[in-house]
């Protein structure tokens, strides 16, 4: 779940601030953004409260941490790890759904606050 | 602790005694019976919400990455790693060796120094009994502490029966050992010093580096039970001059039923094996190595190494948040163990004038424990708390909060709120608390017999 990529573009599009713009190629930026969104989308599907919150948090923090990485080799390696993490999350989400159990007490509180 | 049949038989035999005393004895027996059943075990209903898990020292949930690494070896790659003649064996063996490398990398060891076992209990037994028995011709003395895990203390007890001398070092009020006392305790015939890195009940971190250097200088072997420390704080067996180290799988988000023992090769330490057989694991632990489990252990170690800093930062943050919330809202809360030399994820708090079991029962929405899982069956307060000199009444009112990789802010806030709410409620009902509020010093009261 430690995937990294120039978060620059991602944060830029999400937060609309200029301070996060980088020099990456347009296709690279979009690719990173789509991978990030995909990871978050899959992570939201975890039936387990703890796994779900961890995956969402870790993905966000990992992309944030690596946002200033410029070296293309490192970027490619980080993106590969992101893709592996995506596959892991997808498999584990399916397994979690197969063996689903009751929700935890804080999830009821979350629903109440919505 | 009498059971019902025994107590009724005894009461039956007391026919000659006058009736008020008999009634009192009967009600006392009932009270004891009721006490034992205070927290009844039951399974959750289908629609009941699950409690929050805040007991990370007892065990940890498996990280999804670990389960993902293990499943292929449960489903398809099921070969015996010791089969030398076919692909099933070869692929299983290569997975086992990869896991060995991952475990070794986490603690700064060589892969050849790792022996896979069934858990930290087995590793502890192997180290203590193995070293003692191997060197028993010339060395008959072992040193350990009073706050060690039950398996270490029990192994030492068994060795005492075999004729060894054991020194159980006391700990200071903050849970740390006194290095001077350790140095004085070392004799020319000491073969092993065994001190755990991080205590599972109070979270205290011993000065392992200093102890390691001391032992090396006196030519004594040093074993540490690092089950709670590996993957949570940086561990390096070379820096620390450790000769034997126990690792547990299910404390670092790995599978249950697997662990490892680090056995130093240079300078060589010899152990007499506990489990004999086909000579697997360098002859130290015969038996088929459970490939899926060790793959899980290896994956857990690799994930722990990558996430160490991130997890540590987060756990410290959440722990401070919990302690701050609780201590700023209610008075007379004591944190057991040294405030600095500790692992932040293990918090042991004593709530004065509140009974620990009642608080646990009230906090039924949160999975907590008072003391370690292996000692929670008895009604006695934990021996660790007794060793650090906690008052009897405070020892009975202590709760251990465990924070781990998957804990969220919501869980911490919920736990803190419920804890504060119930402590206040229980204190309202406590006559001792009433007296304290009136300014009476409880220690000055002379309790009389009626």
TrEMBL record, chain A:
GO terms for biological process: iron-sulfur cluster assembly. It comes from the Eukaryota. Signal peptide: none annotated. Residues 31-87 form the Complex 1 LYR protein domain. GO terms for cellular component: L-cysteine desulfurase complex; mitochondrion. PANTHER family: LYR MOTIF-CONTAINING PROTEIN 4, PROTEIN C6ORF149. Belongs to the complex I LYR family. This is Complex 1 LYR protein domain-containing protein. It comes from Culter alburnus.
From TrEMBL, chain B:
GO terms for biological process: [2Fe-2S] cluster assembly; [4Fe-4S] cluster assembly; Mo-molybdopterin cofactor biosynthetic process. Residues 53-414 form the Aminotransferase class V domain. One of its GO terms (cellular component) is nucleus. Its EC number is 2.8.1.7. Pfam families: Aminotran_5. It catalyses: L-cysteinyl-[cysteine desulfurase] + L-cysteine = S-sulfanyl-L-cysteinyl-[cysteine desulfurase] + L-alanine. Keywords: Iron, Iron-sulfur, Metal-binding, Molybdenum cofactor biosynthesis, Pyridoxal phosphate, Transferase. GO terms for molecular function: cysteine desulfurase activity; iron-sulfur cluster binding; metal ion binding; pyridoxal phosphate binding. Its cofactor is pyridoxal 5'-phosphate. InterPro entries: Aminotrans_V_dom, Aminotrans_V_PyrdxlP_BS, Cys_deSase_IscS, Cysteine_dSase, PyrdxlP-dep_Trfase, PyrdxlP-dep_Trfase_major, PyrdxlP-dep_Trfase_small. Signal peptide: none annotated. PROSITE patterns: AA_TRANSFER_CLASS_5. It is an enzyme of class 2 (transferase). Belongs to the class-V pyridoxal-phosphate-dependent aminotransferase family. NifS/IscS subfamily. Homodimer. Component of the mitochondrial core iron-sulfur cluster (ISC) complex composed of NFS1, LYRM4, NDUFAB1, ISCU, FXN, and FDX2; this complex is a heterohexamer containing two copies of each monomer. Component of cyteine desulfurase complex composed of NFS1, LYRM4 and NDUFAB1; this complex contributes to the activation of cysteine desulfurase activity and NFS1 stabilization. Interacts (homodimer form) with ISCU (D-state); each monomer interacts with the C-terminal regions of each NFS1 monomer. Interacts with HSPA9. Interacts (via homodimer form) with FDX2. This is Cysteine desulfurase.
């Amino acid at each position: 779940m430690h995937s990294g990529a120039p978060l620059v573009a991602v944060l830029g599009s999400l937060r609309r601030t200029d301070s996060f713009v980088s020099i990456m190629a347009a296709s690279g930026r979009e690719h990173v953004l789509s991978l990030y969104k995909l990871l978050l989308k899959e992570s939201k599907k975890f039936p387990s409260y703890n796994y779900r919150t961890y995956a969402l948090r870790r993905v966000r923090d990992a992309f944030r941490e690596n946002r200033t990485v410029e070296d293309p080799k490192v970027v490619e390696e980080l993106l590969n790890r992101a893709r592996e993490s995506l596959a892991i999350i997808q498999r584990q989400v399916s397994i979690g759904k197969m063996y689903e159990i009751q929700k935890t007490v804080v999830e009821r509180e979350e629903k109440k606050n919505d | 602790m009498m059971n019902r049949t025994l107590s009724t038989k005894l009461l039956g035999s007391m026919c000659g005694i006058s009736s008020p005393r008999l009634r009192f004895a009967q009600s006392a027996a009932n009270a004891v019976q009721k006490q034992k059943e205070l927290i009844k075990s039951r399974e959750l209903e289908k629609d009941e919400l699950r409690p929050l898990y805040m007991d990370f020292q007892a065990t940890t949930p498996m990280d999804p990455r670990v389960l993902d690494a293990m499943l292929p070896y449960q489903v398809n790659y099921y070969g015996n790693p010791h089969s030398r003649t076919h692909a099933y064996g070869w692929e299983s063996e290569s997975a086992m060796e990869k896991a060995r490398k991952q475990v070794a990398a986490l603690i700064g060891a060589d892969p050849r120094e790792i022996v896979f076992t069934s858990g930290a209990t087995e590793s502890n037994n192997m180290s203590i009994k193995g070293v003692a028995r191997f060197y028993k011709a010339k060395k008959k003395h072992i040193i350990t502490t009073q706050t060690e895990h039950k398996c270490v203390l029990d192994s030492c007890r068994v060795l005492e029966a075999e004729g060894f001398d054991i020194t159980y070092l006391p700990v200071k009020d903050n849970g740390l050992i006194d290095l001077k006392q350790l140095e004085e305790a070392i004799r020319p015939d000491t073969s092993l010093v065994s001190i755990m890195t991080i205590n599972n009940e109070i979270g205290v971190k011993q000065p392992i580096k200093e102890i390691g250097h001391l032992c090396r200088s006196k030519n004594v072997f040093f074993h540490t039970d690092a089950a709670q420390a590996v993957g949570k704080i940086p561990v390096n067996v070379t820096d620390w001059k450790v000769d034997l180290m126990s690792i547990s799988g299910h404390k670092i988000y790995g599978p249950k039923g697997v662990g490892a023992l680090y056995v130093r090769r240079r300078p060589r330490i010899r152990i007499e094996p506990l489990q004999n057989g086909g000579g697997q694991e360098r002859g130290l632990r015969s038996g088929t190595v459970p490939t899926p489990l060790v793959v899980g252990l290896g994956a857990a170690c690799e994930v722990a190494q990558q996430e160490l800093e991130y997890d540590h930062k987060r756990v410290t943050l959440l722990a401070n948040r919990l302690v701050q919330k609780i201590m700023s809202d209610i008075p007379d809360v004591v944190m057991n163990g040294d405030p600095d030399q500790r692992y932040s994820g293990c918090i042991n708090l004593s709530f004065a004038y509140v009974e620990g079991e009642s608080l646990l029962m009230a906090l039924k929405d949160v999975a907590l424990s008072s003391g370690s899982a292996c000692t929670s069956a008895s009604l006695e307060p934990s021996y660790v708390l007794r060793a650090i000199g906690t008052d009897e009444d405070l020892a009975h009112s202590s709760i251990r909060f465990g924070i781990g990789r998957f804990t969220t802010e919501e869980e911490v806030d919920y736990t803190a709120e419920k804890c504060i709410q119930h402590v206040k409620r229980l204190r309202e009902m406590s006559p001792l608390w009433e007296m304290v509020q009136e300014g009476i010093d409880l220690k000055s009261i002379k309790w009389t017999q009626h």
